[in-house]
């Protein structure tokens, strides 16, 4: 462990990391760089390898191939108790035979810190998570949210370089989860510690993260901030996993820089995308439901469709449409005026697409 | 507060329903103990048994004192106390030995994949299927002077003379640990199996090395199992009869043998009864001391 901080080094880096359990490959050559003081989220469905990656960083598993680096140093062979990295476990894993204070002070005690220093730090941590009144309680007597905060305080008390959080909010109810999201972000900003957060909940990821890595089947599909992931998804999986999306098949007609002309279903749309494909190639177009307008009048960059169902939701109206080729399409519009009535089902309409928002995906 | 007729009827019915249980306890648990207690306060019969109705404290006196054959003065019975002390020492050592061997065994089984655990548990309990005497004689066959261990050691030239292992306290200790080991392994296994392995990971994550995780996380978590195992091993070993008899020879008696002696050759039933009660009190006092200690610890630990 180096005491001085080299700000040019990434906090955590995975280089060519492969993890196999018997014949099952949990991680297929993962390369990832996580910056210092970053709130980084590993997002993916269950079984995508995000927890395995977290366990590799914590040291509970060792990689089959590749290196895990902390501040530029390979730590892949260090046992977890020699890594300045702490974990908030999914079900908190608080020690049931200890009080709240003893739980929080455990790491410092194991590091051999003097009693007075531990006591002071525990007090500080209790204040940070607002649990001063519960210092002497047993952890079994706490509510889920309180246990969550003890787990956080326990992991933060030894001032780790990196804090790992393994779906820590999944056991909480909706309201508490919302509060804890804000709380976590505040703690991360206040402590300046790198947070690596694992979740399958896209909303959680978008709320808190500086950057998000989307994983599927042991591979990192895309790394970027919330907007990059949402607006410029790398592939269909990412687009589908984060937010809602319409996918329509089309053919490239022409290309002008990043702007492509795509023909589909008798219409021609303008779309963006970094895909390098020749005219005549079949592609998939991704359009977010809120990036379109449903209109009764034909215009440029519009798809003809039939309106099958209208759902009025107060702030929004959802339109369930069907394109002429039979594909379903969902559009979402904000109700900006109380005077405007939503369109009636059964009408022949046009879906007007924002050319900057329609995105070409690799097939 | 006076009871309504329905309430009193209800109470009567409840007593009636619990009568079989109460009767069983009285007949088979309290009853025999009372008989033993009464016998300990009676005059010894000439050919064993007791002289009914003749009160005597002779039995209890003989527990600690012995009459001088010449002048009938009371002398401290060193031999009896030596037997008490040996019993206590050997059973505490058995308990510790069984814990030392049993804990790693239980931990090993508890950390196997769920499917193979039952096989390991089965292997642990297999010796129970063989008669205790047969097992004890098998140990005897191993460790006697012309037994297998000595034969092998002499055969490969490690020793010239056989080592005297049989009829020593060591032999009794070994036998007791072997016999009562499953009683230590099973309760510890039961509590270890429930141990949340994430707690162990949390320990490692918070800078505890293997030894520290064992001490601060695993041991406190399976404390109830360890205590149950210790009690289960201690109580039968302090009253053990077969093992000290076969492996300890006639000289290294434990309380079980001493008591048997009074009811058999010694023909001193009151003394035998008094000794049985003494054994009961020793165990009871130790348990009470332990329970109180544990209760205090629980109070200071939190709440």
Count of individual helical segments of chain B: 13
CATH arch. level architecture of the largest domain in chain B: Orthogonal Bundle
Q: Determine the mean pLDDT of chain B.
A: 88
CATH homology-level superfamily of the largest domain in chain B: MetI-like
Low-confidence stretches of chain B: 299-303
Q: Main beta sheet of chain B: strand number and arrangement?
A: 2 strands, antiparallel
Percentage of residues in strands of chain B: under 5%
Q: Which strand order do you get reading across the main beta sheet of chain A?
A: 6-7-8-3-9-10
Q: Gap between N and C termini of chain B, in Å?
A: 36 Å
The largest inter-chain interface, given as chain pair and residues per side, is: A-B, 28 and 21 residues
Task: Outline the structure in words.
The complex is a heterodimer of chains A (about 375) and B (about 300). With about 375 residues, chain A is α+β, with helices and mostly antiparallel strands. Chain A folds into two domains: about 10-240, 3-Layer(aba) Sandwich (Rossmann fold); about 245-360, Nucleic acid-binding proteins (OB fold (Dihydrolipoamide Acetyltransferase, E2P)), CATH 2.40.50. Chain A has helices at about 50-60, 100-110, 115-130, 145-155, 175-190, 200-210, 225-230, 235-240, and strands spanning about 10-20, 25-35, 40-45, 65-70, 75, 85-90, 160-165, 195-200, 210-215, 220-225, 245-255, 260-265, 265-270, 280-285, 290-295, 300-310, 315-325, 330-335, 350-355, 360. In chain A, the strands form four sheets. In chain A, strands 6-7-8-3-9-10 form a six-stranded mixed β-sheet, with helices on both faces. A five-stranded antiparallel β-sheet of chain A has the order 13-12-11-14-20, with no helix packed on it. Chain A has a five-stranded antiparallel β-sheet with strand order 15-19-16-17-18, with no helix packed on it. In chain A, helix 3 (about 115-130) packs across helix 4. In chain A, about 40% of the residues are buried. The model of chain A has no long low-confidence stretch (mean pLDDT about 90). Chain B is mostly helical. Chain B folds into two domains: about 5-75, no CATH class; about 80-265, MetI-like (MetI-like fold). Helices cover about 70% and strands about 5% of the residues of chain B. Chain B has 13 helices and four strands. Chain B has helices at about 5-40, 60-65, 80-110, 115-125, 130-145, 150-155, 170-195, 195-205, 210-220, 225-240, 240-245, 255-265, 270-300, and strands at about 40-45, 50-55, 65, 75. In chain B, strand 3 (about 65) and strand 4 form a beta hairpin. In chain B, helix 3 runs parallel beside helix 7 and helix 7 runs antiparallel to helix 10 (about 225-240). Chain B is globular. Residues about 300-303 of chain B have low confidence and may be disordered. The chains are: A alpha+beta (about 375), B mainly alpha (about 300). Chains A and B meet through strand 6 and helix 2 of A and helix 8 and helix 9 of B.
